[in-house]
Structures are given as structure tokens and as C-alpha cells.
UniProtKB/TrEMBL annotation:
Family, per entry: Belongs to the class-IV pyridoxal-phosphate-dependent aminotransferase family.
Gene3D superfamilies: 3.30.470.10, D-amino Acid Aminotransferase, subunit A, domain 2 (3.20.10.10)
Organism: Methanoculleus frigidifontis
Protein name: Branched-chain-amino-acid aminotransferase
Lineage: Archaea, Methanobacteriati, Methanobacteriota, Stenosarchaea group, Methanomicrobia
Recorded superkingdom: Archaea
Length: 288
């Protein structure tokens, strides 16, 4: 496997960063998760925009331009002979001292990893996932904007650990006001009486798949609303599904042991899963 690291394409064994890198010491850095389908990179510009906006919010200067980053991503795919892949660009604060101060880190570290990664949830796309609501709350935007896709994923990892102990495939977060926020790594939607409802993006990550799926739903003539949701809306939904780059569109069949709708992926979710597949196969930035 060939990794891009600070201007060089190196074998995985040589792709090493300093133990003084603040990405390691403090989670000080940003990343993206991007997929390529069929020789094309899906939503590349949207992911690059979020990466650079996340970095800007953290006052982190990315040493290469967006165009250069796009080139590096394509070259990393080519060097690994990948046409269908999961791509992980990472920008850390770089090497500093043991203090917090980012001014002591003269240059950011840039890494791009690309791997083959099929359907994240395997056969659960047919069966549906089991989800559990978790007691750990999504970090409030006042403390850390959820739209900064930072290397500090501990809030999400705590949710995942709780879901693991409770036997769920995915965790559902609430925010500190008691509203439904998102999954540990995906956005959440409910379907009720043929309409799709999803929380606004104040207390969760503004998912790129979320936007693609909302556009797709509208193009299929399905009504879409953004509205705060609570337990009631989850438990009484006809269908629930989550979206994300890694998860794609994944149906949820049970939440906290309660059967959602018929307990099987519902018709609206199925329609969106099929539509999303079509979109990923036709759109995107060519790798070559
Ligand atoms: N929420 C969280 C917390 C995530 O980590 C992700 C994955 N990036 C998402 C939602 C989905 O975002 P996207 O569709 O842009 O991958």
C-alpha cells in the first residue's frame, strides 16, 4: 500500500509521523472520509470544502492548496490501482512540543490513505441494523462545532462503545437539549406517512451523503422536512435510516429493542438505497 505523506508517496511501512505530532498528542487536526466508485471520486469538491473549512475553523494552515490536495488524492488512488475505494485525507497540526500551543507547530502534516472498502455493514443492508440510543450526548456546538471534522472523535467513540455494550450495530446520539442528533458516524432520518424528516444540521455533522440523499428524495417527489426530533419520532416512525460516506444508505430495523415499522427495510429507504447507488455510479470526478 502506498501512502501520501508530506509531499512523498511511500510504502505503508515508511509512512511514519513524529510522536510529537499534535494530531497524536491532542487530536489536533482534521480529516475527511471520501469514496470512489467505478473510477470516479464521489462528491470530491464538497469533501475538500469541508476539510479546508474544518481546518480554517481550527486556524490550521493546510500547506497544499485544494487543487493540489485533489491531485494528491487522485495520484494516491492511481498508485494503489484503486477504482473503488475509501479515501482518508488527514491534516494534523504537525510536530510541536508537549505543550498545547499550536504556534509551536511550524508545519502541518498531510497524509492521504486509500484502501479498498466495500459495504460497511455487509448483509445488514438487506436485514436492517439494530440501533441503540446512548446516554452520552453529542458535544454541543457551543463547545466544539460538530461540523468541524476533527481528529478528536472521542465523543463518537464513547457512543460506539456504549452501543457495543448494549449490542447495537450503531449508536444514536441526542444533543444536550434532548433532541435527536445523529449516529456515531452518520446522519439520521425518519420516514413518517411517506415524508422524510431529519434534524437540522446545528447539532450534528453536515453530512455530504445527507445532502445527496435529500436532493435525491426531492427528485423522486418525496417530501423532505428538517425538524427537531425526539424519542417519540424514532419509536413511532414507519422507517428509520442513516447516511454517511462509509455507511452509505443503511436501514434501521430496531431501536432500543423496539421494532421500527415492519422491522424490515421499508419502501422509501429501499427506493433511496437504489437511487443512491445509481447516483454514485454516474456522478464524480474521474481518477484518471
Ligand atoms: N456524522 C458523523 C459524526 C460522521 O463522522 C459522518 C461521516 N463523515 C457523518 C455524519 C456523515 O457524513 P458524510 O455523509 O459527509 O460522510
Amino acid at each position: 500500500m502506498i501512502i501520501y505523506l508530506d509531499g512523498r508517496y511511500v510504502p505503508e511501512e515508511e509512512a511514519k509521523v513524529s510522536v510529537f505530532d499534535h494530531g497524536l498528542l491532542y487530536g489536533d487536526g482534521v480529516f475527511e472520509g471520501i469514496r470512489a466508485y467505478n473510477g470516479k471520486i464521489f462528491q470530491l469538491e464538497a469533501h475538500l470544502e469541508r476539510l479546508y473549512d474544518s481546518a480554517k475553523t481550527l486556524d490550521l494552515a493546510v500547506p497544499i492548496s485544494r487543487e493540489e490536495m485533489a491531485g494528491v488524492i487522485r495520484e494516491t488512488l492511481r498508485k494503489n490501482n484503486l477504482t473503488d475505494a475509501y479515501i482518508r485525507p488527514i491534516v494534523t497540526r504537525g510536530r510541536g512540543d508537549l505543550g498545547l500551543d499550536p504556534r509551536k507547530c511550524p508545519k502541518a502534516t498531510v497524509i492521504v490513505i486509500a484502501v479498498e472498502w466495500g459495504a460497511m455493514y455487509g448483509d445488514l443492508y438487506e436485514k436492517g441494523l439494530s440501533a441503540v440510543t446512548v446516554s452520552v450526548r453529542r458535544t454541543p456546538a457551543e463547545a466544539m462545532p460538530p461540523n468541524v471534522k476533527s481528529l478528536n472523535y472521542l465523543n463518537n467513540i464513547l457512543a460506539k462503545i456504549e452501543a457495543n455494550y448494549k449490542g447495537g450495530d450503531e449508536a444514536i446520539f441526542f444533543d444536550t437539549n434532548g433532541y435527536v442528533s445523529e449516529g456515531s458516524g452518520d446522519n439520521i432520518f425518519v420516514v413518517k406517512n411517506g415524508e422524510i424528516v431529519t434534524p437540522p444540521t446545528l447539532n450534528n455533522l453536515r453530512g455530504i451523503t445527507r445532502l445527496v440523499v435529500l436532493d435525491l428524495a426531492r427528485s423522486l417527489g418525496i417530501t423532505v422536512r428538517e425538524q427537531n426530533l425526539g424519542y417519540y419520532d424514532l419509536y413511532s416512525a414507519d422507517e428509520v435510516f442513516v447516511t454517511g460516506t462509509a455507511a452509505e444508505v443503511a436501514p434501521i430495523r430496531v431501536i432500543d429493542g423496539r421494532i421500527i415499522g415492519t422491522g424490515k427495510p421499508g419502501p422509501v429507504t429501499r427506493q433511496l438505497m437504489a437511487g443512491f447507488k445509481r447516483v454514485t455510479e454516474t456522478q464524480g470526478t474521474p481518477i484518471a
